[in-house]
Design a protein that fits this description.
It is built from 10 helices and 37 strands. The protein is an alpha/beta fold. The protein has 2 domains: 225 residues, Spore Coat Polysaccharide Biosynthesis Protein SpsA, Chain A; 185 residues, UDP N-Acetylglucosamine Acyltransferase, domain 1 (3 Solenoid). A hairpin with a 5-residue loop joins strand 8 and strand 9. Helix 6 packs across helix 7. The longest helix has 21 residues.
């Protein structure tokens, strides 16, 4: 922002009883961030001189959830006096006494407002030298919102809360979005005059608008061009609606950046994910947390990535992966489960029904199918045969398996950690490897095969197998 100084106050003290949740309303997430996190992200981008967050309900939980990501925010505790007016009052009291700029008030449960909208609101407020400017919107169904009451000439007269509105006032479709800009001095003066004389016994911030009008101070209003940006969240229905609106925005953004999204309706991308041009996202795919996907990668269908890094031209399909790294030109899936700490090298492969955890898998190495690789370091050019298992847990501690370059294991090999397979070593089918295998060696678990003639006919008489065996014997 340019010009006068700006302070931002974010209201996040309410309980949000209609959410029916142990989690404070402002911490319910959409797009990978809590509701109030979206508000604070926008506030930070505005470049305010001060950012204050008013907290009360489950204040320790709210503060803990926000402190790391928003270190410049100052948390202010609201006292026992209820209402938004009191919340703003305790916050403005924390500002420097000589602060004479503008105060932008935002609600922690209105997460969809964008920087450009708020910048235009503040600039418009300053352009007309208003004492206060509020953001409004026209809704087909305004139930639950405060109504903006105007004079016959269109001037804002007052704001009436839903529970205090007459039938005529409740019929008004212009609503208060809970977003205001005040001159700091005007706000301080009028807050001192706000009472709790209303149906809820609260100090309403909206009363300040009425008091300014009574004092002949200029009050302006800006109607939001994007009605959806003013959505307030009061229950789970509105939470889902806001989540969909945000996700639509995010998907469209990446489409404009060169990402192909085959089915936007079934694709969910978190706000802090990053996708490069020429990425293709197939249906029923969730790209969550700070996942990054490089050029040319194909993700999906039916895939969830949480905090992952995917390299150029990689293919990841029907996979659930969390905090994993997938190298360039690697392939993953279908039906793969990559747990945290998985690192798959370039041109590597994790195939069908494979689970990995805390495993480094080298360039060009393959874990094609039906395997578990946990707490392991796998070198380059390795091929783990079907159903190869790293037995990493001894019922007390986890141990690491090391497989050096160009090792090939036979099907159904069990590697009992801690164990090391030297470069170029091989294992026979069904091997149980309990000791280190020297480079270039073949490890086998061999026992003579024993055939007991007539066992089925003797021990399973009358079964289909016994009858088939008898017929075969006669045919011989």
């Amino acid at each position: 922002m340019t010009g006068n100084k700006l302070a931002i106050i974010v209201l996040a003290a309410g309980q949000g009883t209609r959410m029916r949740s142990r989690l404070p309303k402002v911490l319910h997430p959409i797009g990978g961030r809590p509701l109030v996190g979206h508000v604070l992200t926008t506030a930070t981008r505005l470049g305010a001189d001060h950012i204050e967050v008013v907290v009360r309900h489950e204040r320790d939980q709210v503060v803990a959830a926000l402190t790391e990501d928003y270190p410049d925010a100052v948390f202010v505790d609201q006292d026992d006096v209820p209402g938004t007016g009191r919340a703003v009052q305790v916050a403005i009291d924390r500002l420097p006494e000589d602060f004479d700029g503008d105060v932008l008030v935002l609600s922690g449960d209105v997460p969809l407002l964008e920087v450009d909208t708020l910048r235009a609101l503040v600039d418009g407020h300053r352009a007309v030298s208003a004492a206060a400017t509020l953001l409004t919107a026209h809704l087909d169904d305004p139930r639950g919102y405060g109504r903006v009451i105007r004079d016959s000439d269109g001037t804002v007269q007052r704001i009436v809360e839903q529970k205090d509105a007459t039938d005529d006032e409740a019929a008004v479709t212009e609503i208060n979005a809970g977003v205001y800009v005040f001159r700091a001095g005007e706000l301080r003066t009028q807050l001192a005059r706000v009472t709790q004389d209303n149906a809820q016994g609260e100090m309403y911030l909206t009363t300040v608008i009425e008091l300014l009008r009574a004092a002949d101070r200029p009050v302006a209003a800006e109607v939001a061009a994007d009605t959806a940006s003013t959505f307030g969240i009061n229950d789970r229905i509105q939470l889902a609606e806001a989540g969909r609106v945000l996700n639509d925005r995010i998907v469209r953004h990446w489409q404009r950046e060169g990402v192909t999204v085959i089915d936007p309706a079934t694709t969910w991308i978190d706000d802090d994910a990053s996708l490069a041009p020429d990425v293709t996202v197939l249906p029923n795919t969730h790209i969550l947390r700070a996942t990054t996907i490089a050029e040319g990668a194909i993700i999906g269908p039916d895939t969830t990535l949480v905090g992952c890094e995917v390299g150029e031209d990689a293919i990841v399909r029907r996979t659930d992966a969390s905090f994993a790294v997938i190298g360039a030109e690697a392939t993953v899936g279908p039906f793969s489960f990559l747990r945290p700490g998985t690192v798959l090298g370039a041109r590597g492969k994790i195939g069908a029904y494979v689970e990995t955890k805390n495993a480094e898998i080298g360039e060009g190495s393959k874990v094609p199918h039906l395997s578990y690789v946990g707490d392991a370091t796998i070198g380059r050019g390795v091929n783990l045969g079907a159903s190869t298992i790293t037995a990493n847990y001894d019922d007390v501690n986890k141990h690491r398996t090391v497989v050096e370059d160009e090792v090939h294991t036979g099907s159904h090999t069990t590697l009992v950690a801690p164990v090391r397979l030297g470069a170029g070593a091989k294992t026979g089918a069904g091997a149980v490897v309990r000791k280190d295998v020297p480079a270039g060696s073949l490890a086998m678990s061999v026992a003579p095969q024993r055939n007991i003639e007539g066992w089925v006919e003797k021990n399973r008489a009358g079964t289909g197998a016994a009858d088939a065996a008898a017929r075969s014997r006669v045919a011989e």
